[in-house]
Amino acid sequence: MSQKPSIPKGTRDFSPAEVARRNYITGIIRGQFERFGFQPIETPSFEQYDTLMGKYGEEGDRLIFKILNSGDFVKNLEPADLAAPDAQKWTPQLCEKALRYDLTVPFARYVVMHQNEIDFPFKRYQIQPVWRADRPQRGRFREFWQCDADVVGAGGIVQELELVQLYDRVFYELDLKGVTIKINHRKILSGIAEVIGAGEQLVDFTVALDKLDKIGREKVEAEMLQKGIPQAAVAKAAPLFELGGAAQGQLDQLKELLKDSKTGMEGLAELEELFTESSKLGLKASACQLQITLARGLNYYTGVILEVAAPESISMGSIGGGGRYDDLTGIFGLQGLSGVGISFGLDRIYLVLEQLGLFPDQLDQNLDVFCINFGPAEARDALRLVMGLRDRGLRADLYPEAAKLQKQFKYADKRGAPYVVLIGEEELANGTFIVKNMEEGSQQTYKREDWVVFARSLQT
RNA sequence: GUGGUUGUAGCUCAGCUGGUUAGAGCGCUGGAUUGUGGUUCCAGAGGUCGCCGGUUCGAACCCGGUCUUCCACCCCA
Question: Beta carbon of A169 within 7 Å of strand B?
């Protein structure tokens, strides 16, 4: 009895063409990460249960994949526990490990564990899969790849400035135009909540505000009231709903609103510097936008918040995000280290590039030369030529058996080989080989000793 | 986690108010073309109709469950 195979919901197989495309994206990201001075690390796919739990809020805890203990995993439970089903309560006793939920918390853990061997400021990048027990949708998977670059142990807005440049350079190199980098500041949001009198409900306030573009002002106000934010506070927030346009204009209006909030003014000063310096440096492919409603992202952000939106023509959630978190490592006992970082969502960037047709055609070509097999004696000679080409760095292959020519040519065509080499009975006797240009259909005969001439013609 | 949606050949999809032998295009295999692919022509193979159960004389079609896909919330890359 054979069973019909399947893979878990929200996971995917990647075929050769897809891997080539994913490698194209990660190659560009990795290249830019390294140019910007980041160093790679890797961490385990699963961490201790306690390392991850409680770091992403209540919703995050629910979305963490827990790993059931091996062996007699119920031995820690009391008979009374078994009588009263309560998954919430049992989980910590049944699970000592959980799958990585993002790359930031494992990085914080890494920094604390390796603090004595790290030279600060430490700039690290990490490209690895993460797992979330979310309900899948387009661009939302249970297993997906993040490409993170973070700096730990460095304050000052210059890091944020660099990260904006890093985003821009990657999108420029991917030829992805029209990306918007949305920027906000946690301290501004705190300041606003403070001055309008909703300081206690900062999270509820920002979560509701974040939905402005999507559900409109009235529904946002309704949600705020429903969450228990006073009517007077909501009324005071009115100017926010009208904000828009150039960053400087928004900043000037916010200065008026936040003049009595020290925290708020700090945030404004930082954003002002970021926007001023950013416009001096310039951007090649993307645009920065101050979006005061931006609140998404993890709770631990304390400074600048970044989120990257795909070009407007594409319906897709954010393709990247990031920000600054003071005291990144505090939860693991190392106080006073500030961290700032960004993330690229590989899988969503893939979908965007695919939809816009931005993958280079070249990615489909995985062979430079394909050699036809005419029989044992001819194949021996062909293999010698193939090995010579391989030694020169060319991708060359030989058909494994003397199948019908039609079959071998069809195979070469599908493999995308631009050149096919033929060494048949006649060429074997003559000491020659034929090169067929598959695109043009033309053929050229070379003397065997001139194979390097042929190889060089492919390498220019 | 809540509500909805989808599933028919390798792929994209038809398939009438339930009716007996489930179709097309593309792809695949073979041939026209025993030293030439991408064009053309001819022939052929390929489906437990996602899975399990129910209703019915009879189910791809109706009902329930389950898995999967996608969508809206929630949240996020």
Answer: no
- Looking at the fold, whether A318 and A451 belong to one and the same domain comes out as no
Q: Does any domain span residue A21?
A: yes
Question: Could you report the per-residue pLDDT of A387-444, keeping only the tens digit for each?
Answer: 999 999 999 999 998 988 999 999 999 888 999 999 999 999 999 999 999 988 999 9
Question: In total, how many domains does chain A have?
Answer: 2
Q: Indicate yes or no: strand B within 7 A of the C-beta of A351.
A: no
Residue with tokens 């190889």: A455
Range 420-439, chain A: CB under 7 Å to any strand B atom: 420, 422, 424-427, 434, 436, 438-439
- Which amino acid, residue A75? K
pLDDT of res. A2? 56
Domain ends where: A334, A356, A378?
Answer: A356
Nucleic strand B near CB of residue A102 (< 7 Å): yes
Q: Tens digit of pLDDT for each residue in A4-47?
A: 788 899 999 998 889 999 999 999 999 999 999 999 999 999 99
* Segment A114-121 mean pLDDT: 96
Q: Which nt sits closest to A433, CA to C1'? A: B35
Question: Which positions 213-272 on chain A have a beta carbon less than 7 angstroms from any atom of strand B?
Answer: 214
Statement: the CB of A345 is under 7 Å from strand B: yes
ipTM of the complex: 0.89
Domain C-terminal end among A356, A391, A420: A356
pTM, to two decimals:
0.93
Strand B within 7 A of A3 CB: no
d(CA A17, C1' B15) / Å: 34
Question: For residues A367 and A391, what is the distance between their CA atoms, to the nearest angstrom?
Answer: 14
The answer to whether some atom of strand B lies closer than 7 Å to the beta carbon of A410 is yes
| Structural domain harbouring A433 | 366-459
The answer to whether the beta carbon of residue A347 comes closer than 7 angstroms to any atom of strand B is: yes
